Prior knowledge:
The protein is an alpha/beta fold. It has 16 helices and 10 strands. Helices cover 50% and strands 18% of the residues. Helix 6 packs across helix 7 (148-161).
Amino acid sequence: xxxxxxxxxxxxxxxxxxxxxxxxxxxxxxxxxxxxxxxxxxxxxxxxxxxxxxxxxxxxxxxxxxxxxxxxxxxxxxxxxxxxxxxxxxxxxxxxxxxxxxxxxxxxxxxxxxxxxxxxxxxxxxxxxxxxxxxxxxxxxxxxxxxxxxxxxxxxxxxxxxxxxxxxxxxxxxxxxxxxxxxxxxxxxxxxxxxxxxxxxxxxxxxxxxxxxxxxxxxxxxxxxxxxxxxxxxxxxxxxxxxxxxxxxxxxxxxxxxxxxxxxxxxxxxxxxxxxxxxxxxxxxxxxxxxxxxxxxxxxxxxxxxxxxxxxxxxxxxxxxxxxxxxxxxxxxxxxxxxxxxxxxxxxxxxxxxxxxxxxxxxxxxxxxxxxxxxxxxxxxxxxxxxxxxxxxxxxxxxxxxxxxxxxxxxxxxxxxxxxxxxxxxx
Length: 427
């Protein structure tokens, strides 16, 4: 080891760059040097080593699935992922990658967690490292014809068929298998759990992004180079102004609505604005009576939108009520009834606490577009709840002077928010 005391700080920095990896004795010598600048170099090197160790541990964690398979004699493992399921334009692209055993590629991760520059660098590294790479695509026309799920599976099978090595096992990101001729295994969240899948996600993403940049030169009015076909505000504005171009997915809502009639748009907005199943049903009857004035394909699209909204409302209400019930039980409430129906209406929860009978109206929000859910307990709704409560009291006369609470459940964020309004209104 060189005598550090005879070297300037600049010389020490240059020397460190010239050696592969400073040993522990070298680092300790730097840390014991009387010069603050030299000790700062040592601190930087310690931090770098810790970061490298963390990165190595992360990458090794992402090799666990592959290692277990290789322990069973399965050698050629292909990771498969796709890019472009959600955009309004362009193909969906899938990639399959077979990496050499125990290969660690620093920085490799789910492509969505990487910058565009880092993806481009890893794209080159993967091409220089992988044993085999295959790419498959499904065009916008195939997406419209077969739906995005089936088109994605077609692209995945095409990517696997393009490999110059037949895989002994295929790891697919997600929970659906495309049905290739090779043994397949789904891995939910696979682009964060498997290096093979992460490599495929980078290849698919970069390949598709470059295709969309090429499309930008053909159709510059839409700005494909920037948003890559996703439904950004600029893209939607361009669709409204110019209509769809040949690479738009005609079956996707944003594209379909850009070329739809004003009547369709009004009905579609009404369906989305429905805050409960009764409102949705009323809108459905209106659409049925007016269907002769709307194009057939628009009627079909409205029916699909109606079914999706109905499913969402059916799922969101019970989930909100379950969360509300759990919430008040934790506050010491005893649940007496759920979904009590009378006089054509319903009270979500009936509970007791400290000998007080409490009627609870639960309102759930799944979209931020219609304000706070508690504002939907209008005076008319309050009057209906009071009538139903009186019907309950006639059947259960052991309680008097009940209380009326409102619980608002906000599901518009990843973590639900619950607001409890005690004695929200009176009879």
